[in-house]
Amino acid sequence: MKIDKTDTEWKEQLGDERYHVLREKGTEAPFSGEYDSVFDPGNYSCAACGTRLFESDKKFDAHCGWPSFYDAIPGTVLLTPDDSLGMSRTEVTCATCGGHLGHVFEGEGLDVPTNKRYCINSLSLKFTPDA
Question: Cβ contacts of residue 58 below 8 Å, gap of 6+?
Fold first, then answer.
């Protein structure tokens, strides 16, 4: 089910920093996010709507400064070409609420099964540890 809220409603719910990343397509500073170095078992959900997006067993340390995953839970994210900074990238958004999560990069030669790096802002996520 899609979630549709006004900008005012999102801003009230998310606060300034999360709103900037999730609704204005901002990026948090590298190595500043709370989940960059978290590798505990659990799940990562959209900080805006709670949709489960990534599982911890797909997370890896790409040494890029943002949480990195090699795959998303099927059907939970949308991928859109993004040429906004004069380079070809692919934006990752939440399929439920449209929140900006980060970008996915392919073919970097990383030692992961999909050869993809979902580079995701910590501010876009909420981590729930396994019980």
Answer: 69, 70, 71, 72
